[in-house]
Each structure stands twice: as C-alpha cells, then as structure tokens.
C-alpha cells in the first residue's frame, strides 16, 4: 500500500511553467506506476501523464491533449520516493485540480486502475 501527497500547485500566468511534486510513502515505491490526472470544473477527471516503476525499465505516457500543446515531462526519484510533473507554456485551459495516483505493476492510463490517490493540488492559470 502507498500514500501520496501532491504539492506545487498555485496561481500562474499564461505562458508560465510549473512543477508539481508527489511524495509517496509505503513500501517498494519503485514497483508502482505513478500518474497525474486532472479535473477541471464541470469536467470529468482526465489522464495527464504516467511513469512506470523501474523494476522492468521505466516507460512514460502522456495524454495527446497535453503533449501536443505544451512541453511536459514526468519523472521520478526512487531514492526519495518522489514523482514530478514539469509543465511549461501553461494556458488557462490547464486550470484544474491535479491529482497524483499510484498503482502496483504495469502502466495503464485508466483512472479506474489506480487504487491510491492524493487529495489534489489546485493549478490556476490566468490569462
């Protein structure tokens, strides 16, 4: 089992960059796939990015809606049990609550496959 806590959200202006962090606690962090999802007001929660555990080689995946629009990078530091999401050139449509999620095993992008979730961190992008 793992617990996750997000940080790094805030109010930024269009075009700014932001790095979100996710701190995990529990055993065998490097065996968990970690992911970011986001939920904008009035919209469903959507996948943003994911990074697999390192036990079989690290792989990443990004939502088409974000990777074609701005620079985004997901990374993890297994020594610190941390996961990060670096976003650049943010736009008002990126305003949402960003959630960190964890699942044991292989990378999947469906929210339903992630049993562990944080409380979320608010990202607000002003125009």
What value does the Rg take, in angstroms?
14 Å
Largest β-sheet summary:
7 strands, mixed
What is the H/E string? Answer: EEEEEEHEEEEE
End-to-end separation in angstroms reads 40 Å
Estimate the mean pLDDT confidence: 93
Strand content: over 45%
Describe the protein in words.
3% of the residues lie in helices and 51% in strands. It has 127 residues and is mainly beta. Strands 2, 4, 5, 6, 9, 10 and 11 form a seven-stranded mixed sheet that branches. Strands 1-3-8-7 form a four-stranded antiparallel sheet, with no helix packed on it. The longest helix has 4 residues, at 64-67.
Give a quick rundown of the structure:
The strands form 2 sheets. Strands 2, 4, 5, 6, 9, 10 and 11 form a 7-stranded mixed β-sheet that branches.
List the helices and strands and how they pair.
Elements: E1 2-7, E2 10-13, E3 18-26, E4 32-39, E5 46-51, E6 60-62, H1 64-67, E7 72-77, E8 82-87, E9 96-104, E10 116-117, E11 121-126
Parallel strand pairs: 2-11
Antiparallel strand pairs: 1-3, 3-8, 4-5, 4-9, 5-6, 7-8, 9-10, 9-11
Notable characteristics:
mainly beta, single chain, 127 residues, 7-stranded mixed β-sheet
